[in-house]
TrEMBL record:
Gene3D superfamilies: Collagenase (Catalytic Domain). It comes from Streptomyces cylindrosporus. Residues 57-219 form the DUF3152 domain. The lineage of its organism: Bacteria, Bacillati, Actinomycetota, Actinomycetes, Kitasatosporales. This is DUF3152 domain-containing protein. Coiled coil: none annotated. Residues 22-62 are annotated as: Disordered.
Amino acid sequence: MGMLGVVGFTVVAWLPPDARHSPTVTDAVTGAAHTPSASSTSRAPKPNGTEESRIAIPRHGPGTYVTAPGVSAVVGRGKAFRYTVEVENGIDVSPAKAAEEVERILADPRGWTADGHSAFRRVSSGPADLHIRIATPDTVDTICLRHGLDTGGEYNCSADGDVMVNLKRWVLATPVYAKDVPSYRALIINHEVGHFLGHGHVTCPGKGKPAPAMMQQIKGMLGCVPNVWPYDAEGRLITGPAAP
């Protein structure tokens, strides 16, 4: 499917705000066949990555959300995009804790604020440019399909100011990141917010190099090593050739 904001090998073209909402769908799970069920329960690391807790992953949800309360400071430079963090009712994810994670990710100096013109502020009421929603697979499928995107119970998507995070990915990550779920959550947010900002998919720049955040890493690392950040510690963009 087409996307705006094609990323080159060493530079990223900045797009104006009205070009930042191209529908995108990412992170398909490949390999073993998937049989949908009414619900499942899986073990996943807590945010510190050292303990486990049982978190139910229901297939279905009501399609309504709880918005994390409070506001954050502005991070980055330029006019801030206002965003909410929302969790579908009935799932075992704390909206407040999810909001804390998203805030940390977007405030990290290796994140999108390193581009010099992106800024973010979390809000809980009033108008918002971006809604980051953690939801059950069926709810993600329903919302994404409205934008012509088939998420198949496994994908995340970004379209028209909605970042739909599949609960399965938030809890279980992917095989590469299964032992470091918090890092994979950072990849989800950076990848999908990157689409919101107008960036398209790229591929691995070379064997042994860090995988770009805009690479569909779940489909194979292609010789790259895991990385979840758009920029490195020196402020250099981590990218690769535009994906076919």
